[in-house]
Specification:
Elements lengths: L5 E6 L4 H16 L3 H14 L3 E3 L2 E2 L2 E4 L6 E11 L9 E10 L4 H16 L1 H8 L4 H16 L1
Parallel strand pairs: 1-5, 3-6, 4-6
Antiparallel strand pairs: 2-3, 5-6
Helix pairs in contact: 1-2
Length: 150
């Protein structure tokens, strides 16, 4: 089941790299990593190809040495940033997936598919964009997950 262990409801950033740096600094201690390592892994992943999936949404995903489990990080940007997304639109919603380096690729892909379905729903994205509160964003995610289980 898709979860956001970490929610950043109103991140201020002026570029993709600055957003990644701010996210890495915010979450590093919570996932048992180092901000510079996270930032490097995120930038390396983006060099392969943009994780901007369109409609203002990005799903960066990386494997991290030392992570004990998968982590989901839901981020709402205060101002959209240029992201080199497939539709060339700026991004204001980021759902980052961090997986242990030794995790199975199939589990990683299943989580990416769930996150993608969650963020392909325009009503869900509208609700995320309308909220700057951690509790509300958590409730949006929980409600969506419950609707998928039914």
């Amino acid at each position: 089941m898709i979860t956001a262990d970490l929610i950043i409801p109103a991140l201020e950033a002026t570029s993709k790299k600055k957003a990644f740096r701010a996210i890495a600094e915010e979450i590093a201690a919570q996932i048992g990593g180092h901000a510079d390592d996270l930032l490097g892994a995120l930038l390396d992943r983006e060099r392969i190809g943009s994780t901007g999936i369109g409609q203002g949404v990005a799903i960066p995903h990386i494997k991290i040495a030392g992570a004990e489990r998968m982590y989901g990080v839901l981020v709402r940007l205060e101002t959209p940033v240029d992201y080199d997304a497939i539709d060339s639109l700026p991004v204001d919603i980021i759902f980052m997936l961090l997986a242990p380096a030794e995790s199975k690729t199939t589990q990683h892909l299943k989580m990416l598919a769930q996150i993608s379905r969650f963020l392909k729903d325009s009503k869900t994205c509208d609700a995320i964009r309308a909220s700057a509160e951690t509790e509300t964003l958590s409730a949006i995610l929980t409600e969506w997950a419950s609707s998928q289980a039914a």
